[in-house]
């Protein structure tokens, strides 16, 4: 057993981290690619535009991934590669310039343009970083052009956000001053709540990455400390550390406990007196505990099965286990950043013992067999699996809602519990 | 490269998956990266299907490239056969796999599986979803249909036909198929095979036994139908029975085809009045308010052309636009538009469609899920008549588009979003009532009300934000004229503004007064 409680595999791949990896399964995966992150990122950064350079499949994925199409006109589009672009690369670059010209001419409000790479653009080796540089020079200073890859051969679902934020890190202004950076896209309402709490705690200045506007990027420097708001930001964290910032190790701000520990990590770094911390957090924490407890009756002792999806599986499992008394049978995650999840793993181990049922990158067919055999009370899975499993008689929670819904912080702890309680609630109501 | 905001059609392998998902006992092995698995949710979410689509993705990753992607494909194929035990398999590549050229067809054949394995070549950078469905169905038909099959002797049996074209994710395909099977039955014709929907590979072996074929959806069914026509000399019926008139034409065509085969069918009971309520509903006095309403129609060619006929001949609307997104059927759509004195809009660019709709000032839009977005933003009522559609357009109730019951559905679906007869007059007469406004819809649509106080959604569009530049020398509006203009129904207001301005400009009127406004109105009145 490894120090962080995760089971070994026979030959741990060298990931450059000290702790050994969890159990790994290989096979057909049923997880989105990193392009999917655009669905929420394009709303978060209000003057940014995401131009995917890809195929008709990529365009179709983004418009389908949310399950519904968003009614407002989006700040994303796809430059669809066509047969004649495949003939020669020089041609493809000219084509890209033409598309960007047209786009920027029509959208003068855009200040930041992301060229987002896809599987086809990578396989044909279209160099989007050079294209971004070239276009940046051309449109400077009105528009900055950055690039990242959301391709399915390189990135899995939420890794797309990691790639996007990584592209922003070199753009952050330099500072010598001490500050706190919260890293990872959060709903605006959650950001505002955290801003108020940090203010009351006397922690600051606080800035968020990504910022709501491209010209409001948070500064970074050797005195910067940062908190990760999401568990899938491996590369972003590495690049911030390379710029001198220090990560405040903490579990993720889900549930009363997670939010407590997350805020406490910042409070300790800022030397906030424990009594003051308690005074500021007591009321919202009490609300979180109370609203969570209201759902405990429905969820306690219920078994829980995770198909891999957003990489939020571990923190969610920790919340559901410790604050709602659920029993995870299998926690499938698409991939794990063990260093960032050390606190989560320790907390899970405290509740469940040494042998954690965590599995990285499971094979969907094998997992379906295990799930059917285990008949869990609640299965957390992707949109492709949810209705089929419901039709087989299992209660499910679609995982994608966890990245589209405000769930972080004290005030959302009850809502988060409710997401899991509702499918079970429905089962007790329906008589058809 | 083509700049695309929303797409009407997915890539061609989505079409293949629509065929595979529609059928029983067929499995699809697709060489594709993990993100392409999103395709599953199209079926499980939009159609609420209770089973996973029958597809195995190889989900290769960057580290597999150049080393063992071919091996990965072979093992995925072998495992899919073991696990799902299909009657037949289709194999192919998605856009990314097409670039790495692993030859799924050759690899799968090398496995020597004891079932038919049909390779698909679906060029992802040239073709699209509907073509992919048509090509897949064609390949399946060619590979599986027994070439020796022929219709049994006609003595002592009813005529038999195949219904070709319905797929998964087709607009109301499930209900249309039921409706038309019923109609054919009452006419004295049995349906031998409906395909791809609910057919198994072994059902396809019998396709040659039908006396004639009915192509319900040419977009997905006609490639196969043409091959059947050539191979078995089977007569083919191509009238899409959407609307009362087209359904009657369809019935007559079946009777005619049967006659040519030496069988007399009696259409009289089916052609009798009263089998559809649409004709009377359209003639009832409440429907006078439908007369001359301006309608813009866009969708796949088959549904759009049929909708144009129903809208004009069966509901008395005025057609102000007609188009389709599938270029494969541009010719048919152009010919149809010409009949109405219109130029067809043939495009798969959502922004072009948006512009055309805005320019034609319709009072009703009949379109796809995309046009619903456009109409919502332009605050014009809209009904969906064609794929692509949203989960809310896949209803629990039976709501066919075809046959006489289909015509009833069309009437209900298109009239529902409109303001009803006398209520329209009240809204019109007392436009300045503080509870009425351009955002207040008809009372039966109360849920759709956009409260006036709510912040207006920011209209962000690639096409729209054209600055309202006041041209030098353009006539100005007097304040009272501007107020009067606001009393004109909002859906014709921009047109009234344009007309008045050009009227004034032509006459060198510098300031538009209330008088000018009404002069212009009289001038442009037909
Ligand atoms: S997996 Fe690759 S090809 Fe498929 S949608 Fe994602 S980026 Fe595009």
Please provide a written account of the structure.
The complex is a heterodimer of chains A (432) and B (526). Chain A is built from 16 helices and 14 strands. With 432 residues, chain A is of the alpha/beta class. With 526 residues, chain B is α/β, with parallel strands linked by helices. The longest helix of chain B has 17 residues, at 244-260. In chain B, 43% of the residues lie in helices and 13% in strands. At the A-B interface, helix 2, strand 3, helix 3, helix 4 and helix 14 of A face strand 1, helix 2, helix 3, helix 4 and helix 16 of B. The complex binds iron/sulfur cluster. Iron/sulfur cluster (SF4) sits between chains A (33, 35, 54-55, 57-58, 61, 118-120, 151-152) and B (33, 35-36, 95-96).
Provide a compact summary of the structure.
The complex is a heterodimer of chains A (432) and B (526). Chain A is an alpha/beta fold.
Portion of residues in beta strands of chain A equals 5-15%
Cross-sheet strand order for the largest sheet of chain A = 1-12-11-10-13-14
At the fourth level of CATH, the homologous superfamily of the largest domain in chain A is Nitrogenase molybdenum iron protein domain
For the termini of chain B, the CA-CA separation is 45 Å
Compute the separation of the termini of chain A in Å: 47 Å
Question: What would CATH call the architecture of the largest domain in chain A?
Answer: 3-Layer(aba) Sandwich
Query: In which range does the helix fraction of chain A lie?
Result: 40-55%
Strand segment count of chain B: 16
Small molecules in complex: iron/sulfur cluster
Number of strands of chain A: 14
Nearest-integer average pLDDT of chain B: 90
Give, in order, the helices and strands of chain A.
EHEHEHEHHEHEHEEHEHHEHEHEHEHEHH
């Amino acid at each position: 057993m490894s120090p962080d409680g995760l089971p070994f595999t026979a030959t741990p791949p060298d990931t450059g981290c000290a702790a050994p990896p969890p159990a790994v399964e290989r096979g057909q995966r049923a997880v989105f690619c990193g392009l999917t992150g655009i669905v929420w990122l394009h709303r978060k950064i209000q003057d940014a535009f995401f131009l995917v350079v890809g195929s008709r499949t990529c365009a179709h994925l983004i418009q389908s991934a949310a399950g519904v199409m968003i009614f407002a006109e989006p700040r994303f589009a796809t430059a669809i590669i066509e047969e004649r672009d495949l003939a020669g690369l020089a041609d493809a670059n000219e084509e890209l310039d033409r598309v960007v010209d047209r786009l920027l001419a029509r959208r003068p409000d855009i200040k930041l343009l992301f060229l987002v790479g896809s599987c086809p653009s990578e396989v044909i080796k279209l160099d989007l970083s050079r294209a971004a540089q070239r276009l940046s020079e051309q449109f400077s200073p009105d528009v900055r052009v950055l690039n990242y890859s959301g391709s399915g051969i390189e990135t899995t679902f939420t890794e797309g956000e990691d790639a996007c934020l990584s592209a922003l890190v070199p753009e952050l202004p330099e500072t010598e001053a001490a500050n706190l950076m919260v890293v990872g896209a959060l709903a605006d309402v959650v950001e505002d709540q955290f801003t108020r709490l940090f203010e009351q705690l006397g922690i600051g200045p606080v800035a968020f990455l990504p910022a709501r506007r491209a010209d409001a990027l948070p500064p970074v420097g050797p005195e910067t400390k940062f908190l990760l708001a999401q568990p899938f930001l491996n590369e972003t964290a590495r690049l911030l550390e390379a710029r001198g910032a220090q990560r405040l190790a903490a579990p993720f701000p889900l549930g009363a406990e997670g939010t407590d520990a997350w805020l406490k990590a910042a409070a300790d770094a800022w030397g906030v007196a424990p009594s003051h911390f308690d005074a500021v957090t007591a009321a919202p924490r009490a609300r979180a505990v109370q609203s969570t407890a209201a759902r405990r009756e429905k969820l306690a002792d219920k078994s829980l099965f995770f198909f891999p999806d957003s990489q939020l599986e571990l923190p969610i499992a920790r919340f559901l286990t410790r604050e709602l008394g659920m029993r995870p049978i299998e926690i499938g995650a698409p991939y794990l950043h063990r260093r960032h999840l050390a606190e989560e793993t320790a907390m899970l181990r405290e509740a469940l013992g040494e042998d954690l049922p965590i599995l990285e990158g499971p094979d969907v067919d094998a997992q379906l067999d295990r799930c059917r055999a285990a008949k869990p009370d609640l299965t957390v899975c992707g949109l492709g699996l949810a209705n089929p499993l419901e039709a087989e008689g299992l209660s499910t929670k679609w995982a994608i809602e966890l990245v589209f819904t405000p769930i972080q912080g004290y005030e959302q702890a009850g809502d988060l519990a409710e997401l899991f309680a509702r499918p079970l609630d429905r089962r007790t109501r329906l008589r058809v | 490269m083509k700049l695309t905001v929303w797409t009407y059609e997915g890539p061609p392998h989505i079409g293949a998956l629509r065929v595979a998902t529609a059928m029983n006992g067929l499995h699809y092995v697709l060489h594709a990266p993990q993100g392409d698995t999103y395709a599953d949710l199209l079926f499980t979410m939009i159609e609420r299907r209770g089973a996973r689509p029958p597809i195995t993705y190889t989900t290769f990753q960057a580290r597999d490239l150049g080393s063992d992607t071919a091996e990965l494909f072979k093992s995925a194929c072998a495992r899919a056969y073991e696990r799902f035990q299909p009657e037949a398999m289709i194999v192919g590549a998605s856009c990314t796999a097409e670039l790495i050229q692993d030859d799924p067809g050759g690899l799968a054949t090398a496995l020597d599986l004891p079932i038919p394995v049909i390779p698909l070549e679906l060029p992802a950078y040239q073709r699209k979803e509907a073509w992919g469905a048509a090509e897949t169905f064609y390949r399946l038909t060619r590979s599986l249909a027994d070439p020796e099959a022929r219709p049994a002797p006609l003595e002592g049996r009813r005529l038999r036909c195949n219904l070709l074209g319905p797929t998964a994710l087709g607009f109301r395909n499930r209900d249309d198929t039921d409706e038309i099977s019923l109609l054919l039955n009452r006419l004295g014709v049995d349906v031998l095979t409906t395909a791809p929907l609910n057919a198994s590979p072994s059902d396809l072996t019998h396709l040659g036994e039908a006396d004639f074929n009915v192509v319900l959806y040419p977009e997905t069914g006609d490639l196969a139908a043409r091959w059947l026509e050539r191979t078995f000399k089977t007569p083919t019926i191509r009238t899409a029975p959407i609307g009362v008139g087209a359904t009657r034409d369809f019935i007559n065509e079946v009777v005619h085809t049967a006659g040519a085969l030496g069988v007399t069918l009696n259409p009289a009971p089916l052609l009798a009045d009263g089998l559809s309520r649409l004709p009377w509903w359209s003639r009832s006095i409440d429907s006078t308010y439908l007369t001359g309403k301006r309608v813009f129609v866009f969708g796949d060619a088959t549904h759009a052309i049929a909708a144009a006929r129903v809208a004009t001949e069966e509901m008395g609307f005025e057609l102000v636009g007609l188009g389709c997104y599938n270029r494969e059927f541009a010719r048919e759509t152009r010919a149809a538009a010409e009949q109405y004195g219109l130029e067809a809009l043939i495009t798969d660019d959502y922004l072009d469609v948006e512009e055309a709709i805005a320019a034609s000032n319709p009072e009703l839009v009949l379109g796809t899920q995309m046009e619903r977005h456009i109409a919502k933003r332009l605050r014009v009522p809209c009904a969906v008549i064609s794929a692509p559609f949203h989960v809310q357009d896949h209803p629990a109730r039976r709501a066919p588009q075809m046959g006489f019951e289909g015509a009833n559905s069309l009437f209900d679906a298109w009239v529902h979003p409109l303001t009803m007869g006398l209520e329209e007059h009240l809204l019109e007469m007392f436009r300045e009532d503080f509870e009425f406004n351009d955002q207040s819809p008809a009372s039966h649509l109360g849920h759709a009300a956009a409260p006036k106080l709510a912040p207006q959604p920011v209209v962000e569009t690639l096409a729209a934000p054209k600055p309202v530049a006041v041209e030098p020398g353009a006539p100005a509006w007097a304040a009272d004229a501007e107020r009067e203009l606001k009393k004109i129904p909002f859906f014709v207001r921009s047109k009234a503004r344009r007309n008045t301005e050009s009227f004034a400009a032509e006459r060198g009127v510098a300031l538009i007064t209330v008088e000018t406004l009404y002069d212009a109105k009289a001038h442009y009145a037909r």
